[in-house]
TrEMBL record:
Major localization class: membrane
Listed name of the protein: Copper-transporting ATPase
Lineage: Bacteria, Pseudomonadati, Campylobacterota, Epsilonproteobacteria, Campylobacterales
Organism domain of life: Bacteria
InterPro entries for the chain: ATPase_P-typ_cyto_dom_N, ATPase_P-typ_P_site, ATPase_P-typ_TM_dom_sf, ATPase_P-typ_transduc_dom_A_sf, ATPase_P-type_domA, HAD-like_sf, HAD_sf, HMA_dom
Residue spans crossing the bilayer: 87-104, 116-135, 147-166, 172-190, 328-347, 353-380, 652-673, 679-696
Keyword annotations from UniProtKB, A to Z: ATP-binding, Cell membrane, Membrane, Metal-binding, Nucleotide-binding, Phosphoprotein, Translocase, Transmembrane, Transmembrane helix
Function, as annotated: Probably involved in copper export.
Length: 701
C-alpha cells in the first residue's frame, strides 16, 4: 500500500469533497480516500502506482481541477474569490433590473428583456452550479447544485413556456430564477471569504525549513544545494542564526540550539560533539558541523508536517452526519417534486402540475440553509475582532460551545515566557553588577536579569556557550553561570548551595555569581503564571469544563503549575506525536498552545487557540488568535460561541420549519391556499432575509 496526495481546486462546498471521496473509493485498487474541502486536498491509499492516473482522471471528470503545488493553490483561491465576487455583483444587478421589469412593466419589450437578461444571468453568473450539477449527475452524484439547478430551470423553463404561449398564464417568473442564483452566490461568497482566512497548515511549515543547505565535500570545498536534496551521510555546515535542515550527529563544534519546536521548552539546549540534533532547530550561537543520518525529507520536522497534514484531513462525526443529511435532503426534495407533479397531472392538468412542482422546487431551494451558518459566523467574527480576537476559522466558533475538555500547553500559555526573579542573597551593589554584566548576553536568563538595566561596561566579557559569562574589569574577574561552571573555575559554591537548598520546592533556575574565585551569592528565577490564569481555570470549572495540561516541560515544573492552578490532570515531557495522540483520542476538545510542537495538536483539536506572540506556525494553525495576551478573552470566546450557536440553531430551525410549512402550501395540499412559483420565489427570498436579520443580532453582543 502507498499514499497518494493531491491538491484539488474548484471545490465549492463539503458536498464536492464528498463526491470525490465516493467516486474514488469505487475505483478498484483504491483502499481508502479522505478529501478535505477546508484544505483543498486529498489523501488516497492505493495498491499500485498506476492508480494515481485513474484518481486524477476521475477528479477531472467530476469537474474539479488538479493543482500542482501550494503556490498554484493560493493563486487559484484568490482568482476564484475575485471571480465569485464579480458574479455575485453582476447577478444582483441583473436580478434588480429583471424584477423591476416584472413588477412595473408588462409590455412585450419588458418580456423580451426579462428573458434575455435572466438567460445571461443564470447561465453566466451561475455557470459553476450547472457544470457541477451536470458532472455530478453524470457520475451519479446528487448535491445542492442539483437542487439549485432544478429550481432555477423550473422557473426559467416555465416562464419560457408562458412567453411562447404554450401555457395560458400571464405572469413570468424570470426574476425568481435570477434571485435564486443571487442568494446562493451570496452564501458561497461569504463561505469562501471565511475559508480564505484559514491558511493551509502544511504551507506554513514549509517556511520553517531553510531553502538552502551548505554541504562540505570530500575535497573540503563547500557546496550550496537545496535542503530538500540533503541525504544520509552528507556533512552540513550550520552557522549562527541558521536552521538545521536534517536530523544528524554533530561532528565538531558546540552551540546553543533552540529546540522549542520539538520539546516545547523556550530555553536553548547546549549541543556539542557527538550529540544528536533534529531538523528545524535554530543555532543561536557558535557553528556546527553535522553528519546527516537520514534524508531531509525524512526528518523530525517533516514528520511534524505529516502530522499537521493528516490532522487537517480528519473529518469530525458532525461534518460526516451533515454530509449525509445534505445528500438525502436533495434526493428527497426531487422525489417530492416529482410526486407533486404526477399527483396534479392526474388530478388536474399539465399546467397545474408543472406550476405546483415548480413551486415546490423553488421554495425548497436551500438559500436560507446555505446562509444560516456563514452569515452568523461573519457577524460573530466581526464582533470578536472588536474584542481583539482574530477568528481564523469561524466554523470553530460553533463547536466551542460544546466543549467540555480543555487542553493547555504550559510555557507561554499558562505561564509567562519571561522569567521572574524569585529569591537572591546578593547585596544591592553585587546584584546591580550581576545585572550589568548580563547585558552582554542574549540568553533568556540574561534578558530576564538585565531587562531594566542600561549601562556601558568598561571591561571585557566572554560568553561561554551553554555555561555562563566571564567578565574582566580592572583587576577583577567575575563569573556568572551554573554551579558546574563555577566549580570548573575553582570557585567554592557550598555556601550558595546551602541558600538554594532552602527553596528546593520551587524547582527554580539557579544562577551563581562569583568575584575573583569568591562566590558572592546567587539568584533564583522561575516562570510565573500569566495574569488571569487562575480566573480562567475557575471560570471553566463553573461551566463544567475540565482543564488538563499537556507539556513538553519537565515533570517538576508542570506539577508545580498544576498545583498552583488546582488542575488535577497533567502530562509532562510529551513529544509532538504524543500530544497529538492524546488529543486524537478525545472526541471534542479545546487545545490552547503557542509552540511549533503544538502545531499538529492545534490543527487536529476540535477547537484550537493561540496567541499573537506565539510561534508563527501555532498562529497559522490556531482557530482563534488572541491578539491581547488576556486569558479572560478565552472565557469571552465561550460566551460568544454559545450565543452564536443559539443564533445558528434558530436560523436552521427557521429554514427547516419554513420549508416544512411552506412546501405543503406550494404543493397545493392546503385547502383554499395556492402558492404560485412567483410567490414561492418571494417566500424563499423572505426566508433568507429573515436569516440575515436574525444573524445581525450578534453585532450587539
Amino acid at each position: 500500500m502507498q499514499e497518494f496526495r493531491v491538491k484539488i481546486g474548484k471545490m465549492t462546498c463539503v458536498n464536492c469533497s464528498n463526491a470525490i471521496e465516493r467516486a474514488c473509493k469505487k475505483i478498484e485498487g483504491v483502499e481508502e480516500a479522505s478529501v478535505s474541502y477546508v484544505n483543498s486536498s486529498g489523501i488516497f491509499l492505493i495498491q499500485k502506482d498506476e492508480k494515481r492516473k485513474e484518481i486524477l482522471a476521475k477528479i477531472k471528470n467530476l469537474g474539479f481541477e488538479i493543482l500542482e503545488d501550494e503556490q498554484s493553490l493560493e493563486e487559484y483561491k484568490i482568482k476564484k474569490h475575485i471571480e465569485l465576487r464579480k458574479n455575485l455583483l453582476l447577478s444582483i444587478v441583473l436580478s434588480v433590473v429583471v424584477m423591476y421589469f416584472e413588477m412595473f412593466d408588462q409590455s412585450f419589450f419588458s418580456q423580451n428583456m426579462q428573458m434575455f437578461l435572466s438567460f445571461f444571468g443564470i447561465f453566466y453568473c451561475g455557470r459553476d452550479f450547472f457544470s457541477h450539477a451536470f458532472l455530478g449527475l453524470k457520475n451519479k452524484n446528487l448535491d445542492m447544485n442539483t437542487l439549485i439547478v432544478l429550481g432555477v430551470m423550473s422557473a426559467f423553463v416555465y416562464s419560457c413556456l408562458i412567453y411562447f404561449r404554450i401555457f395560458d398564464e400571464k405572469h413570468l417568473y424570470f426574476s425568481g430564477a435570477m434571485m435564486i442564483i443571487s442568494f446562493v452566490l451570496l452564501g458561497k461568497y461569504l463561505e469562501n471569504k471565511i475559508k480564505l482566512k484559514a491558511e493551509s497548515y502544511q504551507k506554513n511549515l514549509e517556511k520553517i525549513d531553510t531553502k538552502k543547505a551548505r554541504i562540505l565535500l570530500e575535497n573540503d570545498e563547500v557546496k550550496e544545494i537545496s535542503s530538500a536534496f540533503v541525504k544520509a551521510g552528507d556533512v552540513i555546515l550550520v552557522k549562527e542564526g541558521e536552521s538545521i535542515v536534517a536530523d544528524g550527529a554533530i561532528l565538531s563544534g558546540s552551540a546553543e540550539v533552540d529546540m522549542s519546536f520539538l520539546n516545547g521548552e523556550f530555553f536553548p539546549v547546549l549541543k556539542k560533539e557527538n550529540d544528536e540534533v533534529q531538523a528545524g532547530g535554530i543555532v543561536l550561537n557558535g557553528m556546527l558541523k553535522i553528519k546527516a543520518n537520514k534524508k531531509a525529507m525524512d526528518s523530525t520536522l517533516e514528520q511534524i508536517k505529516n502530522l499537521v497534514f493528516y490532522a487537517g484531513n480528519i473529518k469530525t462525526p458532525l461534518a460526516t452526519l451533515a454530509d449525509k443529511i445534505s445528500k438525502y435532503f436533495v434526493a428527497s426534495i426531487i422525489i417530492l417534486a416529482l410526486c407533486v407533479f404526477l399527483f396534479w397531472l392526474f388530478r388536474a392538468n399539465l399546467n397545474t402540475a408543472f406550476l405546483r412542482a415548480c413551486a415546490v422546487l423553488l421554495i425548497s431551494c436551500p438559500c436560507a440553509l446555505g446562509l444560516a451558518t456563514p452569515i452568523a459566523l461573519v457577524v460573530a467574527s466581526s464582533n470578536a475582532a472588536k474584542n481583539f480576537i482574530l477568528l481564523k476559522n469561524p466554523a470553530a466558533l460553533e463547536k466551542l460551545s460544546q466543549i467540555k475538555l480543555a487542553y493547555f500547553d504550559k510555557t507561554g500559555t499558562l505561564t509567562k515566557e519571561e522569567l521572574e526573579i524569585i529569591k537572591h542573597n546578593l547585596n544591592q551593589d553585587d546584584f546591580q553588577k550581576l545585572c550589568e554584566i548580563e547585558t552582554l548576553s542574549s540568553h533568556s536568563i540574561a534578558k530576564s536579569l538585565s531587562k531594566n538595566t542600561h549601562v556601558e561596561l568598561k571591561g571585557e566579557g566572554e560568553i561561554v556557550v551553554g555555561a555562563g559569562i566571564i567578565y574582566k574589569e580592572n583587576d577583577d574577574t567575575y563569573f556568572i553561570g551554573s554551579r558546574y561552571f563555577l566549580d570548573s573555575k575553582g570557585v567554592d559554591t557550598k555556601e550558595c548551595d546551602h541558600f538554594f537548598n532552602q527553596f528546593k520546592n520551587l524547582s527554580s533556575i539557579k544562577v551563581y555569581f562569583a568575584k575573583n574565585s569568591h562566590c558572592l551569592g546567587g539568584v533564583l528565577l522561575d516562570s510565573s503564571l500569566k495574569e488571569g490564569a487562575r480566573e480562567l481555570i475557575v471560570g471553566l470549572k463553573k461551566q463544567g469544563i475540565k482543564s488538563v495540561i499537556l507539556s513538553g516541560d519537565n515533570q517538576e515544573s508542570v506539577e508545580k503549575i498544576a498545583k498552583e492552578l488546582d488542575i488535577d490532570d497533567f502530562y509532562a515531557q510529551l513529544k509532538p506525536e504524543e500530544k497529538l495522540q492524546i488529543i486524537k483520542n478525545s472526541k471534542e476538545a479545546l487545545f490552547i498552545g503557542d509552540g511549533l510542537n503544538d502545531a499538529a495538536g492545534l490543527s487536529l483539536a476540535s477547537v484550537s487557540m493561540s496567541f499573537s506572540k506565539a510561534n508563527e506556525l501555532a498562529k497559522k494553525t490556531g482557530d482563534f488568535i488572541l491578539i491581547k495576551e488576556n486569558l479572560a478573552n478565552i472565557l469571552y470566546c465561550f460566551s460568544l460561541s454559545k450565543k452564536t450557536r443559539k443564533i445558528i440553531k434558530l436560523n436552521l430551525f427557521w429554514a427547516f420549519i419554513y420549508n416544512t410549512l411552506c412546501i405543503p402550501i406550494a404543493a397545493g395540499f392546503v385547502p383554499f391556499i395556492a402558492l404560485s412559483p412567483h410567490f414561492a420565489a418571494l417566500a424563499m427570498c423572505f426566508s433568507s432575509i429573515t436569516v440575515v436579520l436574525n444573524s445581525l443580532r450578534l453585532k450587539n453582543i
